[in-house]
Write a structure and sequence with these properties.
Cytochrome Bc1 Complex, Chain D, domain 2; 8 helices; 0% strand
Length: 130
């Protein structure tokens, strides 16, 4: 009886902690790998390219509402599907993507990159859909 109670208590505890949190690489392998690769262009841009041009909020917004973000960024079309991820998984994947950022100061890419200071009403943060 004690073993069963201890087991169920442990399961409840573990399910309420972040021990089951998915790291960025796992999120990538689950949702992104079919179209994106870390350093090489596939169907979509590489994480290295994305990290050199985007902020964490822009990445999160693109994952949760790619159609709207594409319009804001001036793209004529977008093939990326919309994903519904937890805040924790969004942070994990955006941090993972940003870990591929190259440290090249004063490059032409730095001058030409697009950065949205305030991602239109924080779609990635508050999860609102339009």
């Amino acid at each position: 009886m004690i073993n069963r109670t201890l087991f169920f208590s442990l399961i409840v505890y573990l399910s309420t902690t972040s021990l089951f949190a998915i790291d960025g690489k796992s999120v990538f392998e689950t949702y992104c790998w079919g179209c994106h690769h870390q350093t090489a262009e596939a169907f979509g841009p590489s994480f290295e390219e994305i990290a050199s041009k985007r902020t964490a909020n822009e990445i999160k917004a693109m994952i949760t509402d790619p159609q709207s973000v594409s319009k804001v960024l001036g793209y004529k079309r977008n093939a990326m599907p919309k994903f519904r991820l937890s805040d924790e998984n969004l942070s994990s994947i955006s941090n993972y993507i940003l870990s591929f950022k190259r440290n090249e100061s004063n490059s032409t890419e730095d001058i030409n990159k697009t950065i949205i200071k305030n991602p239109y009403p924080s779609i990635a943060i508050n999860g609102e859909n339009r």
